[in-house]
Amino acid sequence: MEERLFATEKHGGRALYRLHAVTVFLGICLLLCYRATHVPAAGSGGRAAWLGMLAAELWFGFYWVITQSVRWCPIRRRTFHDRLAARFGERLPCVDIFVCTADPRSEPPSLVVATVLSVMAYNYPPAKLNVYLSDDGGSILTFYALWEASAFAKHWLPFCRRYGVEPRSPAAYFAQSDEKPRHDPPHALQEWTSVKNLYDEMTERIDSAARTGNVPEETRAKHKGFSEWDTGITSKDHHPIVQILIDGKDKAVADNEGNVLPTLVYVAREKRPQYHHNFKAGAMNALIRVSSVISNSPIILNVDCDMYSNNSDTIRDALCFFLDEETGHRIAFVQYPQNYNNLTKNNIYGNSLNVINQVELSGLDAWGGPLYIGTGCFHRRETLCGRRFTEDYKEDWDRGTKEQQQHRHRVDGETEAKAKSLATCAYEHDDDTRWGDEVGLKYGCSVEDVITGLAIHCRGWESVYSNPARAAFVGVAPTTLAQTILQHKRWSEGNFGIFVSRYCPFVFGRRGKTRLPHQMGYSIYGLWAPNSLPTLYYAVVPSLCLLKGTPLFPELTSPWIAPFVYVAVAKNVYSAWEALWCGDTLRGWWNGQRMWLVRRTTSYLYGFVDTVRDSLGLSKMGFVVSSKVSDEDEAKRYEQEMMEFGTASPEYVIVAAVALLNLVCLAGMAAALDVFFVQVALCGVLVLLNVPVYEAMFVRKDRGRMPFPITLASVGFVTLALIVPFF
Ligand SMILES: O=c1ccn([C@@H]2O[C@H](COP(=O)(O)OP(=O)(O)O[C@H]3O[C@H](CO)[C@@H](O)[C@H](O)[C@H]3O)[C@@H](O)[C@H]2O)c(=O)[nH]1
Ligand SMILES: [Mn+2]
């Protein structure tokens, strides 16, 4: 028996957690019992409101049970790089790396190439690395940036190797200026300075091209690839472009130390207005095909253009799973968490995925594997192309090496031409290959990643979650409220869309023989969107009833109050503890609670409504790329952790109205505290949570304050809610 290449460990403290969960569960049962047995008589004022509370609490109880699946027995993986090295040496498989970008304005080319350089510089035999950049913007600016990067790589890669640079994104590395190699020999500092200058100059050229929107004529003469843009093409209407900028097999192309370089390919698949391009899923599928004629590696790593590699050993880390003799053959993909480098200390928009990263994905890992979350994920090419799991499946780890040898004998132009033909619109359309359905990433869902991963799990494969101490990938989180709301709308809509489609985890998953807790885990995200309705109800109705003197909870002196208080306190204390354990601050947790409310009442509500409209055929799914840049003024407020309401957006009306309504109800309540204890507490917490919203409405003077029309509209809605006699 050979030693395993990775180990699996259980998180500690589970007995305690389960005890907590059981008591909360009992509390939920008791509280529902009270609700069901104390319904006001027909005709009395609060009956409808009461039944609504019952429905909301039934939902919350059910959803809470769903979330237990990932907390029951989370696990952690540990890999043994030394064993991998001892067993395989440099006899490692080829790896294709896909980087996706879509728009040079919201994703600046200089950011994109920093990511590309970081993945070219992996601590891995360069002859076995092939990097593909998919540019859905079809932009000459991005192509130009990549061409610059292909030249800079000749300095950057040897520099990284020689000094063990970390992280290997030049942007991230040079940003940490205290990293100057002080203790190294004097020439190290000299080299550091010269590489930094080269990098700064390159970035300046790329950025200035991006500013002016075109590439200087004399530069365009330097590479044949620029001629693709001679005929004035637009991002939505252009021919397929495939340019091999570095051919790793060409011995004449080497870095400044004479080593081979990774293959580097620019791809902009064909776009025509009459063909739907299927967003990122379409881009990924084009890359799968294009790469199959150039390198055809058995392993594919995919990253978003803002997710640079922060750990140069990650490929070896992932291979510890795939190459493990005992269970490696079951693993379809290895997912790494999404970490961000632009979060502020207290996480004003609740964008750190800490709890998802540390708890939920680890929890899913115990039941069959984490979701595929679109970036930082290593796939087997075969599973991505639709293969079912069979116990006797044997990967051909030499594939790719063979293809590359064949390809060496072919003329470069021929490969490019073949690749182009695979990146046309007509290819998927004419050829009945079932791309986007059985083959490749799935189409028609705004979380193409999650649905694709689910299909892979249902074909019998497992996945693995790896979260090494040094983060494998680091990217950019949205820095404004509007961007955050937008991103969560896309996510909640996509996941709910899956839940109500034929891919519903409980139906499709069962057929695929995934386990019930695994299906529940998927449903945590699938049911984000419908959470909006009970949450909105809970944030509005009890407060309104407080104002109007309708009690909805047991009195302070009633023993029935105990389960309500216990569930509320225990659940929130646990959630705060969990957040702290995952690395958030207490204030960050508190901000997270506010964002939880905001997301549920805006993004998730919109996601819910749009999914319903979608399934009635009234709207079409979209994918709005989130911006990775913000203007200076906005960026400053983000640093100061002030919420950004500057650009009016209809969602803010909901945020402002809910906040205002609770303030009015708390101020105007005319009720006895003992009868209304829970309602006062609930309303009070909502008001406290919303303090930053009141500031934005009534106090702040900066450009990020709540726009006046929004405040006005929310006042209108609140007045309406107060005068219409609902209850
Ligand atoms: O038509 C498109 C649209 C987007 N993208 C790329 O998709 C990636 C993700 O887009 P982004 O706007 O950054 O969305 P996020 O919300 O940050 O993305 C998360 O959620 C997506 C699904 O909604 C996943 O695809 C991503 O991997 C995951 O990081 C970016 O690299 C884009 O360039 C394309 O290539 N083509
Ligand atoms: Mn992103």
Automatic annotation (TrEMBL):
Record-given protein name: Cellulose synthase-like protein E1
Q: Name one GO molecular function term.
A: cellulose synthase activity
Instruction: Name the active site residues.
Output: 136, 449
Sorted UniProt keywords = Cell wall biogenesis/degradation, Glycosyltransferase, Membrane, Transferase, Transmembrane, Transmembrane helix
The Gene Ontology biological process annotation of the record reads:
cell wall organization; cellulose biosynthetic process; plant-type primary cell wall biogenesis
Transmembrane residues, as ranges? Answer: 15-37, 49-66, 652-670, 676-694, 706-726
Q: Taxonomic classification, please?
A: Eukaryota, Viridiplantae, Streptophyta, Embryophyta, Tracheophyta
Q: Which residues bind Mn(2+)?
A: 280, 304
Gene name per UniProt: LOC100281504
What subcellular compartments does it reside in? Endomembrane system
Q: Which domain of life is it from?
A: Eukaryota
Per the UniProt entry, what species is this protein from, by scientific name? Zea mays (Maize)
Q: How does it sit in the membrane?
A: Multi-pass membrane protein
Query: Coiled-coil intervals in this record?
Result: none
Q: Please give an example of a GO cellular component term from this record.
A: plasma membrane
Q: Which residues bind UDP-alpha-D-glucose?
A: 107, 136
Q: What InterPro entries has UniProt attached to this entry?
A: Cellulose_synth, Nucleotide-diphossugar_trans
